[in-house]
Amino acid sequence: MRTWTVLPLLMVIAGCATPSSPPSCVGLRGVGAVPITDAAGVTRIRYTYADEAVRLPHLQCRADQGDRTAMVELARALETGSGVVRDDSRAATLYEKAAQDRPTFTSIYSPPVRLGGAGQVMMIPNTDGGPGNAEAKHRLGHMLVEGRGIARDPERGRQLIAEAERQGFKP
Predict the structure, then answer these.
(1) Mean pLDDT taken over the chain
(2) What confidence tens digit (pLDDT) does each residue in 51-87 have?
(3) What CA dihedral angle connects 131, 83, 46 and 104, to 10 degrees?
(4) Residue 20 three-state SS
(5) How far is 160 from 145, CA to CA, in rounded Å?
């Protein structure tokens, strides 16, 4: 293959692999990040905000990027009306997204390089994989039992609350 055909192909591939920033993240300022290691040795990032006015846009940005903790924080603010107009429906949607269990690995099949050769399956770890957020399950469960912001489904609500408890969540 000639170089002039390979280069555009590589640019297209690189463009597809480059994650784009959600619109909610454009132009945000006034946030700091501090790594905190808990007693179990797990390091998490604690965000600090210049003032309360920038907290919610930053939570929206992080939630749009898939951060489950940010989804729960934003949903809690929407559920209680803390700093925003109360919106149970939107809170339930965020809890639902944060509560979803996600696979810890993604399987990618690579075909054989030559005829008669063997292909292989590669297991790529998902950084946001694993069980859903327990607090989100608990809060969504109560919303389902009560029918707040979402269609009433007491059976599924009780299942989610039990799941959150099995994950060790204590309100």
Answers:
(1) 81
(2) 667 788 888 888 998 888 999 999 999 999 988 899 9
(3) 20
(4) coil
(5) 10
For the chain, which domains are there?
Answer: 32-112+121-166 (1.25.40.10)
Residues 6+ apart with CB under 8 A from 61: 22, 24, 25, 28, 70
Contact between 108 and 115 (Cβ < 8 Å): no
User: What are 71's two structure tokens?
Assistant: 């989804």
Rg value, the chain, Cα: 21
Residue type, 58: H
Distance between CA atoms of 66 and 96, rounded to whole angstroms? 12
Cα–Cα distance, 57 to 71 (Å, whole number): 12
115-125-41 Cα angle (round to 5): 150
Q: Kind of pairing, strands 31-37 and 43-49?
A: antiparallel
Question: Helix %, strand %, coil % for the chain, to 5?
Answer: 50, 15, 35
Task: Give yes or no for residue 17 having a pLDDT over 50.
Answer: no
Q: Which of 27, 29, 25, 45 is nearest to 37 (CA)?
A: 45
